Amino acid sequence: MAYLLQQLANAVPLSALYATLAFGYVIGFALTKRADIAYGAIFAFSGHLYVLFAQLGWDEFWLVLPAALAMGAGAAIVGGVATGIVVGGLTLRLIERHTRNAPIVAALGVLLVLMEGARLASGSREIWLSPFLNRAVPLWAGHSFAITLTLIQLLNTGLMLAMIAAGWLVIDHTSLGRIWRAVADDKIVAQLCGISSRLVFVLAYAAASLYASVAGVLATSYYGTMDFGAGLLISIKIVLIAAAGGHSHPLRSAAGAAAVGFAETLWSGYGPILWRDFAIGLMLVAVLVISRRERVVL
């Protein structure tokens, strides 16, 4: 019983990460209606910028660790959002005018550029952050065991849940959210009503990139580094986990992604770790096939 409770506690930070990524992904997907693997590349790219600039602040500017981490986080978020605006708001939108499926191919090229750019910038070596906020915090103590999470896990989970709550409030309770939904439902009709679909597309992709960038910083802070090949793997995983809750609403997509995080953690705790990604991927594909609805995407 104690082992199960600890596994459920371990699943909370991972589920919060998946939920945040799915929430941001759907903000952009709702406008393009096409799978976007560049979103996961921005997540990984932000993590690389984080460790690169944190190392720069530590080695070259002789900053203390909190200041070096703050410098890295600021550069990662600014760089990730700027990359998202250029890639999604400008490049992919221009390509989309010629053919609707071209952004899918272009996103693959963007992913390769970002992954290789990060690898070359770091000299083809992984840079690791010094561990911080890794003190265990007991959540519940029994007679012979204690359920614990580290400070960084609790902090990351709180920040990610706050981001999802803030995004939900904007989408469901503000005029910006209504405009976003109008363009997502029918951008031609929205343009006839005086809404600039181009501006909404740029702002939506910038918001999605912000979620990916912050998630990249928080994930890298916990794991200590970001692998060069993480961009492709996390991109494919995000496309699948975001679809678990459906693409009609970011909050429902986040809830489905959180459920995937719990399933993945429980599989890691009780099943063969080697088959985890295959089993979770197969489960997601089965869910998508069963829940598939016939509709025309224009």
Q: In a nutshell, what does this entry contain?
A:
By secondary structure, the protein is mainly α.
SSE blueprint:
Blueprint: H1 2-32, H2 38-59, H3 65-96, H4 102-121, E1 136-141, E2 146-150, H5 151-173, H6 175-185, H7 187-192, H8 197-223, H9 230-244, H10 250-270, H11 276-290
Antiparallel strand pairs: 1-2
Question: What features would you highlight for this structure?
Answer:
ABC transporter involved in vitamin B12 uptake, BtuC; 298 residues; 2 strands; 75% helix
Structure description:
The protein contains 11 helices and 2 strands; from the N terminus they run ααααββααααααα. 40% of the residues are buried. β1 and β2 form a beta hairpin. 75% of the residues lie in helices and 4% in strands. The chain has one domain: Orthogonal Bundle (ABC transporter involved in vitamin B12 uptake, BtuC), CATH 1.10.3470. By secondary structure, the chain is mainly alpha-helical. The longest helix is centred in the N-terminal third of the chain and has 32 residues. The C terminus is likely disordered.
